[in-house]
Amino acid sequence: MENISEPKVFANTVILQSEGLLKYILETGVYPREAETLKELRNATAKHPMGFMGAAPDAGQLIAMLLKVSNAKKTIEVGVFTGYSLLLTALTIPDDGKIIAMDPDRKAYEIGLPFIKRAGVQHKIDFIESPALPVLDKLLEDAENEGSFDFAFIDADKNNYWNYHERVMRLVKIGGIVAYDNALWGGTVALPEKAVSKDKQEWRLLSLAFNEAISKDCRVQIAFVSIGDGVIFCRRIA
Length: 238
Ligand SMILES: C[S@@+](CC[C@H](N)C(=O)[O-])C[C@H]1O[C@@H](n2cnc3c(N)ncnc32)[C@H](O)[C@@H]1O
Prior knowledge:
The chain has one domain: Rossmann fold, CATH 3.40.50.150. It contains 8 helices and 9 strands. It has helices at 19-30, 36-45, 57-69, 84-92, 106-118, 132-141, 161-171, 198-215, and strands at 9-10, 13-14, 74-78, 98-102, 125-128, 149-154, 172-181, 220-225, 231-236. The protein has a 7-stranded mixed beta sheet with strand order 5-4-3-6-7-9-8, sandwiched between helices. Strands 1-2 form a two-stranded antiparallel sheet. Helix 2 (36-45) packs antiparallel against helix 5, helix 3 packs parallel to helix 4 and helix 6 runs parallel beside helix 7. It is globular. This is Caffeoyl-CoA O-methyltransferase.
């Protein structure tokens, strides 16, 4: 039976371990506000063999809010999959905004493409079928790209998170925001290694190292948020 006692509170933070509480949040304030095309894309992605591994819809809501309050127009998307966060961003930035999106998996992108087209936002997207690192390096070859982006969402291979960080720190303007998904790696960051399944151990270690390094990085103000699978938001300050 679902735990019906009050959720635990630690350091004045409700521990979202109750499925009921998350269900309440999603059903009350997230799903009713989710754009129809996003909902359809999310449902279509659930049929993918890997299931829906896009940004969590409640995290998406926060990302959209940050895109709006920061007036983001030019963004970077590392890790597209079927495009949930990509479509969310495209729906949120202005009509003359631009997203440079990169992922070596075009097939997954094409699952989401009909929804992107239907939403009428394809003109804002420049999808590059490639691992992200060489694309980011290419962008950095042109000095005009330095500090020209307002926002970046990083949701791809963990082993490169720090490599992405070093590059987006140059591409995103001072005051711009970078969001790193999966900071909690399914909650494994707070578990001893022996309690973690073999397939999650490597990325757990990478997450621990990245989270620690970013927490010490003076170039950014951070907000480490327990939403979805954990998102670290960074505002570039230097
Ligand atoms: C968790 S999914 C991204 C989900 C997406 N942001 C969304 O909201 O639907 C991770 C994606 O990262 C991609 N990926 C893996 N290695 C990559 C790399 N080196 N460069 C760019 N994308 C990569 C995978 O192909 C996969 O589609």
